Amino acid sequence: MPRKKDGMLYVVHPTPAKGKNGKNIVFARPAEKHKITMRELEDFCCRNYHSRYGELMSAFSYFLRAAGELMVRGYRIETPIGSFAPRLKLMREITDPDEVKDFDVRYDGVEYNPGKLWNTELEKWSRGFRRYENPNTQEIMEDKQQLEIVLKKILDDNGYTTVRRFAQESTLTYYSARKLLNEWCEGENPKLLKTKQGQYHIYTAL
Question: How would you class 173 by CB atoms within 10 Å of its CB: exposed for 0-12, middle for 13-18, buried for 19 or more?
Fold first, then answer.
């Protein structure tokens, strides 16, 4: 049978959870072949949708400015790509609502609900699914020297890394990348410092 040549690429990875047969349960996720930059997205739209260069970036810029201002005023922004609203949190444990003061409240990122339009758009282009033979996570984890080289490059380029960025660059699963980054934060001579930033943690060199 000829190998399928279209469809969304996916990869399969094991999880820490065990199945009924005692083996690790696996999960599927999209295969990320290449990260598209804003410039590449602009180029793609120019070639395929006849947009003017810079038009998309301008639209994003206007949206961010307007949405930021309106969300601070208490609005939820409904758009064709989903809805956006600010998320808040309290900096201490409080059980009495009357005890909450203005200084207890902190901004905690943006809540995003993609809605159903993304389903419609992706299904329009979908031709089923096609497996991509991803690298062996266990073998990658054993080569700590190469992983440290990947980490150093990310830190040199950005000054910090996130679990998602390290997972993408190292081809590890999100779980394995987080486990390794946290290991590098521990011990008598840790390599990294883990810091909470909004809803994410960032890792910086020590």
Answer: buried
Handedness of CA 44, 49, 53, 58 (dihedral sign): negative
Domain boundary among 125, 149, 181: 125
Q: Are residues 68 and 114 located together in one domain of the fold?
A: yes
Which of residues 60 and 144 earns the better pLDDT score?
60
Q: How far apart are CA 145 and CA 128, in angstroms?
A: 38
DSSP 93-110: ----GGG--GGGEEEEEE
Pick the closest to residue 56 from 42, 40, 37, 35 (CA basis): 42
Per residue in 112-165, pLDDT tens?
998 888 888 888 877 778 776 666 666 666 778 888 888 989 998 889 999 888
What is the pLDDT at residue 59?
93
Of 158, 149, 147, 156, the residue nearest 181 (C-alpha): 147
